[in-house]
Amino acid sequence: MAMTPKNYLARRNRYSYPTVGLRRYPGGYKHRTFPSIATMERTLRKFLMSPSAADVQLGYLSVVYWGHYSGKAGIAQPGRAMSKVDLALAGLTRLRFRPLAVAITVRSAHRLIRLKRCGDAVWGLTALPQLGFAFASKVCAFLSPGRCGVIDSVIAGRYKRFGFAMTKSGKKYYVATKASNKATYSTYCRFLAREASRLNTYGRPLRWVDRDGRKYAWRAVDVERALY
Predict the structure, then answer these.
(1) Which residues contact 62 (CB under 8 A, 6 or more apart)?
(2) Angle at 174 between CA 172 and CA 177, to 5 degrees
(3) SS3 for 30?
(4) pLDDT tens digits for the chain (228 residues)?
(5) Model-level pTM?
(6) What's the Cα-to-Cα distance from 163 to each of 81, 166, 173, 225, rounded to whole Å?
């Protein structure tokens, strides 16, 4: 797993994922594209941290959309992503979850992250439709990119020393939505944060470059993206 600072930088700068989300309109939700990763992150975090329950729900649905937008070989699949959003909305209705209940769940997760209980934060978020363990970690990464990163089957499978429990569905393995993964995720996030802190000691020459050409300091989520 050991990588040199230059390896981290090269891999982080190669990271490519659509900078997309949703916007709300009277009839529902529409696609939205952002000019940079930083802009997307700031906007989605603003929604997730908003005092408005409707905005928090928009942030949660945007993460679902973003996470499903890129398909195999990086081919955009907006229709598939929106279908997952529709499933999330249907699940909320079935569970009688109003936007306020979504907001309470997300705010509880943020509070737990601040208490350095990242695993408990992920676990709490899995109560929301379409958020298995891996997708719940995506919400955590948007809530607190300095402390959390995403854990999905790619990273869990490639770096088995992290110790995430996996489950098989068909021919694929996924990060299991199991309570045993809570402590593992907290340990994983501490590793990401430590690596980010170490990389930042190298100063501006080692800062990663966003799509807008600007350089940014390392955070836990950036280390995760370099590992991906």
Answers:
(1) 21, 22, 32, 44, 47
(2) 145
(3) strand
(4) 578 999 999 999 998 889 999 999 998 999 999 999 999 999 999 999 999 999 999 999 999 999 999 876 778 999 999 999 999 999 999 999 999 999 999 999 999 999 999 999 999 999 999 999 999 999 999 999 999 999 999 999 999 999 999 999 888 899 999 999 999 999 999 999 999 999 999 999 999 999 889 999 999 999 999 999
(5) 0.96
(6) 29, 9, 14, 18
Strands 208-209 and 215-216: antiparallel
The pair of structure tokens assigned to 191 is 């590793």
> Which residues partner with 24 through β-bridges?
29
DSSP string covering 169-190, please?
Answer: ETTEEEE---TTHHHHHHHHHH
d(CA 214, CA 5) in angstroms, rounded, equals: 19
